Amino acid sequence: VQLAESGGGLVQPGGSLTLSCIAFGTIVNDNAMGWYRQAPGKERELVAAITDKGSTTIGDSVKGRVTISRDNAKNTITLQMNSLKLEDTAVYYCNILQIEADWKAGNYWGKGTLVTVSS
Questions:
Q1: Phi, psi of 54 (to 5 degrees)
Q2: Strands (DSSP E) along the chain, which ranges?
Q3: Closest to 96 (Cα-Cα) out of 36, 41, 42
Q4: 64 to each of 4, 16, 61, how far by Cα in Å?
Q5: Is residue 66 within 8 Å of 48, Cβ to Cβ?
Q6: DSSP secondary-structure letter at 101?
Q7: Beta partners for residue 66, in sequence order
Q8: 71: which of 50, 56, 96, 114 lies 20 to 30 Å off by Cα?
Q9: Which stretch of DSSP H or E encloses residue 74?
Q10: Torsion of CA 64, 48, 80, 95, to 10 degrees
Q11: What whole-number distance in Å separates Cα of residue 4 and Cα of residue 15?
Q12: What does the alpha-carbon distance between residue 117 and residue 109 come to, in Å, rounded to a whole number?
């Protein structure tokens, strides 16, 4: 499985940004796709995730400011971020977690896309 992210860039505080991720390869049922981020000197943290059944979870630091959606037919997720803050600056990584043959846990990451919030 490979993941391709797009949509990062420079945005002013208070602005909005949309990130997209598409998964290529063998995608099995009962999986979860999501976005994580890592700022310099900090641990990677969950931004938002969504299962193929539509259940979502949103990280505490971005609650009320992000929306995650999914197109199962295209194996694509989209993250809409609003009211961006300086502290949202980070590399954002797409992830998919699925249970593969012989109960192997398939946990795959994209290369990351940089989001910089700055005036």
A1: 100, 0
A2: 2-6, 9-11, 17-24, 31-38, 45-51, 56-58, 66-71, 76-81, 90-99, 105-109, 113-117
A3: 36
A4: 26, 13, 9
A5: yes
A6: G
A7: 81
A8: 114
A9: none
A10: 170
A11: 24
A12: 23
Angle at 112 between CA 89 and CA 75, to 5 degrees: 120
Residue with tokens 């505080």: 13
pLDDT tens per residue across span 11-62: 999 999 999 999 999 999 889 999 999 999 999 999 999 999 999 999 999 9
Contact 34, 77 (CB under 8 A): yes
DSSP-derived pairing of the beta strands 9-11 and 113-117: parallel
Terminal Cα-to-Cα distance of the chain (whole angstroms): 37
Q: In this predicted model, what pLDDT tens digit does every residue of 65-103 receive, in sequence order?
A: 999 999 999 999 999 999 999 999 999 999 999 998 888
Give the pLDDT score at 109: 98
DSSP state of 25: S
